[in-house]
């Protein structure tokens, strides 16, 4: 026979389930509505069009590049932050994380102003020629995802007991060797989480990308920009096809992230 606490537990569980079920139903209705105003045959044709394939390829390439760059540059900085070794301390950390609280379009506008004021013809101008180019997509995505990756990496490094590093140092390891051979292997799941989060966010980045790289068909046309262009041009079937691809890619990426969290 159920005890007196069982009904309370059931009621509490029901209260917790109501908002979850409501949100699931709302999200399902939003996704279903995408196909309600389009032709399934037209969407199927648009899925194999050159524009869709171009947008998928460019999105994956730029998101992988931005996430990889964020991870590579974030590891040493996040480690310094976690161990109190960052020059400038909290002031420097605040400066690095400012883009996290800025609207992406503001980040893109700041980058656009910076790169358009580079002295023309200079070596810096040649190296940083990113305005209205695919390289600009990587730069814009990087500045948007880097603070997010930095926070995840810092938390991962902070969770590693410094005593393991101290033991390695007594065995003759340098700080860099300790980071590579002790800290990184112990924080590997955090590193993977940071990469996946940066990749997912870079895939959906629009504001900074369109401001710095522009919305140029078959040049800087990532999935979000392609959706914007197709809706602006009234091609609803192409827009739905692109949204379908975005949902599938995001779903796979989020599922991988959740599986990683479950293992942890």
UniProtKB/TrEMBL annotation:
This is ABC transmembrane type-1 domain-containing protein. The keyword Hydrolase does not apply. The chain crosses the membrane at residues 14-40, 52-82, 94-115, 135-153, 191-216, 236-260. It is a multi-pass membrane protein. Pfam families: BPD_transp_1. GO terms for biological process: transmembrane transport. GO terms for cellular component: plasma membrane. The keyword rRNA-binding does not apply. Keywords: Cell membrane, Membrane, Molybdenum, Transmembrane, Transmembrane helix, Transport. PANTHER family: MOLYBDENUM TRANSPORT SYSTEM PERMEASE PROTEIN MODB. Signal peptide: none annotated. Belongs to the binding-protein-dependent transport system permease family. Residues 56-259 form the ABC transmembrane type-1 domain. It is found in: Cell membrane.
């Amino acid at each position: 026979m159920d005890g007196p606490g069982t009904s309370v537990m059931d009621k509490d569980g029901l209260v917790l389930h109501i908002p979850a079920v409501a949100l699931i139903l709302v999200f399902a209705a939003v996704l279903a509505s995408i196909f309600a105003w389009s032709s399934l045959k037209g969407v199927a044709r648009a899925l194999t069009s050159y524009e869709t394939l171009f947008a998928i390829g460019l999105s994956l390439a730029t998101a992988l590049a931005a996430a990889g760059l964020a991870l590579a540059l974030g590891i040493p900085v996040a480690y310094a932050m976690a161990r109190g070794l960052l020059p400038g301390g909290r002031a420097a950390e605040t400066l690095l994380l400012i883009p996290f609280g800025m609207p992406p379009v503001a980040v893109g506008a700041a980058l656009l102003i910076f790169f358009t004021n580079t002295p023309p013809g200079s070596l810096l101008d040649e190296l940083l020629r990113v305005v209205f180019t695919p390289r600009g997509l990587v730069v814009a995505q990087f500045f948007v995802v880097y603070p997010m990756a930095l926070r995840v990496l810092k938390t991962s490094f902070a969770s590693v007991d410094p005593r393991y590093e101290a033991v390695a140092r007594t065995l003759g390891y340098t700080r860099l060797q300790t980071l590579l051979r002790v800290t990184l292997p112990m924080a590997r799941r955090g590193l993977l989480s940071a990469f996946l989060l940066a990749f997912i966010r870079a895939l959906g980045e629009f504001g900074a990308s369109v401001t710095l790289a522009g919305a140029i068909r078959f040049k800087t046309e990532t999935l979000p920009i392609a959706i914007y262009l197709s809706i602006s041009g009234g091609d609803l079937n192409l827009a739905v096809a692109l949204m379908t691809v975005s949902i599938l890619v995001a779903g796979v990426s989020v599922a991988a992230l959740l599986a990683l969290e479950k293992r942890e």
